[in-house]
Amino acid sequence: MSKEVHLFRVAELNVRIEIADADVNSISLLKSFEPFRVDSHEGEEVFLTFIVDDTTQPIEKSRRKRIRSFETGNGYTIVDCVDDGGYQFIIKDLQSYECGLLVTNSNFSICRCALNGNFDMRRFGVNNAMMLAFAFAGSFRHALLVHASLVRYDGYGYAFIAKSGTGKSTQVSMWLRHIPGCDLMNDDNPVIRIIDGQAWIYGSPWSGKTPCYRNIKARLGAVTRIDRAPANSIDKLQALEAFASFLPSCSSMKWDGVIYNNICDAVTEVVETTGIYTLHCLPNKEAAEVCFNAITKH
After folding, report:
1. Which of 150, 283, 271 shows the shortest CA–CA distance to 228?
2. 251 alpha-carbon distance from chain centroid
3. Model's pTM, two decimal places?
4. According to the model, what pLDDT value does residue 74 have?
5. Any residues with CB less than 8 A from the CB of 46 and at least 6 apart, and which?
C-alpha cells in the first residue's frame, strides 16, 4: 500500500500527516493546510501524528463506553472512551452520513482516521477529525483552539467570541471597514498559545465559511464577547467573569479530567495576561470605534 507523508507547522507546533492508499485519499482533502507546509521539522518533536488509513477499524464494543453524542453546527459527532484511555469519534455530516472514524491515544499525539463516501464527505470527515485531534493534543502544549473571529492591528490580534450567528464576523467586518490598518487573521478557529507567560494568537487551517488560512501570529491584545444591544458600550470583565465568558469558546472535553484541567489552566493564563471584554453593540461603525478605543490601550 502506498503512503504519502506531509509535514506542517501550525501555531508553531509540528504536525505530521500520513496518508495511506493515496489513490483514494490525498492531501487535496486538506487544502487549507498548504500555507502551513514545511520541508522538515529540523529534528524538533512532532506533537501530532495524524494517519489517514481507511483500513482503520472501530474499537470492539466491549472495549469502549459511550460518552456522548453532540451537534457541532455542521454535523454530529459520537464519542466513546476506550479502555486504554484513548477515544473513538464517529463524525457525521448534516445528513447523518458517517464521513469519518477517528481513533486516538490518550493524549491525542497519535490519531488514526478512516474516511468514507465521496470527496466532499471525505473532506468533511478529515477536516473535522483534524480539528478534534489538534485541539486536544494542543491542550498538552498550553494551546487553545478558539471559536472566534480574529483581526490584527498594530501587531496585536483581537479575538471576537460569541454564539454562532450573534455577530463575531460582523464586528470584525466593521473593524476592517472603519479602522485603518486592520487585517483579517482568521474567521472561525484561531489558536492561542501561552509561551513564557505571554499569550500569542495564530491563524489556522480552520476558518469556517471564510477562506482565511494564514500562517501568521500576533500578541493577543484582547478577547471580546459580542452581545447584541440597542446601544453601544463595553465592559472590561473581572477575573471570574472573564474566565466564565471565555471558557465556552474554547474546544474542550469536560469528561476527560486531564485535558479539561489543561484547558482550564490555559484559559486562566489568558485571563491573567489579557483583557477580556463584553461589547454590547449594534452592527455599526460606532460599535467598532467604541470597542477599538477601549481594547487597544496597551
Report:
1. 283
2. 7
3. 0.94
4. 85
5. 14, 15, 16
